[in-house]
Structures are given as structure tokens and as C-alpha cells.
Amino acid sequence: MNNFTFYSPTYFAFGKGQEVNAGKYIKRFGGSKVLLHYGGGSVVRSGLLDRVCQALDADQIPYVKLGGVKPNPRSGLVYEGIDVCRKEGVDFILAIGGGSAIDSAKAIAMGVCYDGDFWDFYCGKAAPKAALPVGTILTIAAAGSEGSGDSVITLEDGMLKRGAGSEHIRPKFSILNPELTQTLPAYQTAAGATDICAHVCERYFTNTKEVEITDRLCEAVLQTMIKETPRVIADPNNYDARANIMWAGMVAHNNIVGVGRDQDWNSHGIEHELSALYDVAHGAGLAVVMPNWMEYVMDHDINRFCQFATRVFHLDMDFANPRNTAMAGINAFRRWLRSIGMPLTFAELGAKAEDIPKLVETFGIGDGETGGFVHLNKDDITNIYELCSRETIPGL
Ligand code: NZQ
Ligand code: ZN
Q1: 192 lines ligand 1 (CB under 6 A)
Q2: CA of 295 to the centre of ligand 1 (A)
Q3: Residue 265 resides in a domain
Q4: Is residue 396, in this structure, part of any structural domain at all?
Q5: 20, 212, 218, 220: which could form a disulfide with 204 (CB 3.0–4.6 Å)?
Q6: pLDDT digits (tens, 9 = 90+) for 177-197
Q7: How many domains does one find in the chain?
Q8: How far apart are CA 396 and CA 386, in angstroms?
């Protein structure tokens, strides 16, 4: 196991009705005037926004509202949010929604405390030295942004989707009420579940040896998702399955399952180009990319893929030909993704093979290499996109 530090100071309030305590937590973490930041309307339609406003009114906490965050959140609204916060003297941002609202809130939080362009943090020009405190009320289990120090934004000028990471933007508190996810359409539930699995897999496929504890934690999260996702798709109001998924989404990405081991993250980079170009759900893009990435790199460490097949999907080990077991595990993962309604190919996602050169160009590694499990260059990235663009998948 590698050396590591782990500091994950988000305060979680989990369970039914917890959103009424938002004002209490805002005060606890020093907020006196709040920006309520949310998406395209689901929190308005569900009545959640009104309930939060009433709770803040009752606690005498003034607030301003800024909705309209799009999935795959854009830079334009971040600039607007920074202006609003400065003009209104906002000192706390409460994101209400999913990864998109939370990531946009984090970008605004960093931008308010910075004299330059907030995009400097996303293109690697600068590292944030401060940010306004952020709290969240989560409405979809997916990105894990409610417990992570990361934010992903798309720059409208060029549609570049990039991430920034800093301890300054890890949420001070996150309210996780599984009931709030019951209004999700099945497709969004499934895309979120796929993202959760991908966050685990990015960490599970590692070159670090002797990491039994985090291997087993990863497998537990994956098995929970494999069991619970079909239950909530069959019955969207299944509270207990929703609750298990919601906590799995947090555990998958606050790095408790990834400490002490190298991590890969190429599938995420490859997917981000798809959601930037086609505006598809991040999790749906991952359902196409991740199994193809697995197939492309599996020979690097067949034993690890056999471990995935036998421990996660309970497949029998083919000792005479371990490669068969590894491939069977990847296809079991694909079958599960298909069973929850996720796409497996470019055609099913709405992506086009003729865009591959453009996708590789914006991926932007030039002549370099990237990835913590297997180093990939731009030819490898092209090859993975080409696997994604196959019309049929052998063995399925
Ligand atoms: O905008 P509204 O109207 O709220 O609708 C949203 C949106 O259309 C809807 N939705 C959310 N909760 C709902 C609901 N509809 C009905 N009922 C509810 N309870 O679902 C749609 C998707 O929402 P979004 O916030 O975009 O989903 P998600 O949480 O999957 O976030 C995706 C973004 O997070 C980034 C992704 O790249 C993508 O931009 N990620 C962020 C990470 C991080 N910060 O750590 C890590 C991830 O790997 C990921 O890259
Ligand atoms: Zn993700």
C-alpha cells in the first residue's frame, strides 16, 4: 500500500426530511447570506426549493437565487454567479441538485475569491488559495461531488470540459435525503449508477499491490450497485434501495476506497470529451467508454480483471485460460449496464465515428501519455474510441 493522507471533513446529514435543517448547518459553517444555486427546474417542480426557502426564512437567513445550471455545467453561468455573489455580498453557496449544480457552485465559490478568470483553475494555470464555503442538498446519486473536492465545468468557448480539484471546495456539509431522488427518471438513475461504478473502477484497476482493504471496499460498493439499481428502476419509491445507492455514491468518490493505491481515470477523460461534444449524460457516456477501456487494457494485468470477474460478478475461474474469465467479467458488466437501460455503443449513445479525430484532438494530450493503471497515448485513445464505435460487441 502507498503512503497517503486522508482528510474528508464534510458533515453529512442523511435521511428523510433533513433538508429542513439547511439553515442550521449554514449558520454552523459561518454563512450569513446565501446563494441558492440549482438546475433547470426539477427542484422547483418537486417543491424542494420552496421548502428550503421556507427553512431559511424561518432561520432568518437572507438569500438570492440563481437557477438554470445545465447538465454538464457551463462557464457562462459561473461568471454570472460570481457577479451575483460579489454584488449581493454572499458569503455561502448552497447547491441544490446533482453534480452539475454542485460543480457550478464550487466554481463560483473559487471564482469569487480570485482576481483572475476562474477558468485558470480548470486549465491548470492557477491553484485556488481560497473559496466561499459550499453546502449541498443532493437530489441524484451519481457524481459524488457532495463529498469530493472536485468540480467539472465546460468552457463554452470551444466546449472544453475540464476538472479542477482543491480542498477549498470540498462541501462543508451535504444533506442526503434519499426520498429526494425518487422523482428521477429511470435513465438518470441508471446513468448515475453507472458513474458510481465507474468511480470505483477508476480506483480498482491499479498497479499497487497488497491493497486488500480498498479492493474489498470497492467490491462492496460495486455489488451494492449491481443489486440495488435494478430494484429502484423497478420501483422508483424503494426508499431503502435509494438510501443504499445514495451512500454508495458518496463512498465511491470521497476517496475512502481509493487511498493508498494508484488510480487510472482515463475512462473519465475519454468520456468527458463525449459529454462535451454531444451533451450526453456523463454516466451514459461512461457505460460506452469504460467496458471498452477495460477490454483495451486488460492484458496489462489479466489477474486483476479475473479478480473483478470472480469477486464482483461471481464468475467461475477458467484456470486454463484466464483471459476468458477476464473477458467474461467485462461482458457481465456490459450485460448489467444494458439491463439498467444504458447504451453500450456510439450509435446507442448518439456519438459518431467520424468525430473521433475531433474527440482525440480536444482530449488534448498531444504527444504525451496519461493514465495511472496503463499509460495511453493519443493512438491508444483513438483505438478506444474506435472500439466504442463498433456496431456489435463480440460475445454479447
Ligand atoms: O437540472 P434539473 O432540472 O435539476 O434536472 C437534472 C438534470 O437534468 C435531473 N435531476 C437531478 N435530480 C433530479 C432530477 N430530475 C428529477 N428528480 C430529481 N431528484 O437530472 C439531470 C442530471 O443532473 P446532473 O446534476 O447533471 O447529474 P450528475 O449528478 O450526474 O452530474 C453530472 C456532472 O457531474 C460531473 C459530470 O462530468 C457532469 O458534468 N462530475 C463531477 C464530479 C465531481 N465533481 O467530483 C465527478 C464525476 O466523475 C463527474 O465528472
Ligand atoms: Zn464520474
Answers
A1: yes
A2: 27
A3: yes
A4: no
A5: 218
A6: 999 999 999 999 999 999 999
A7: 2
A8: 18
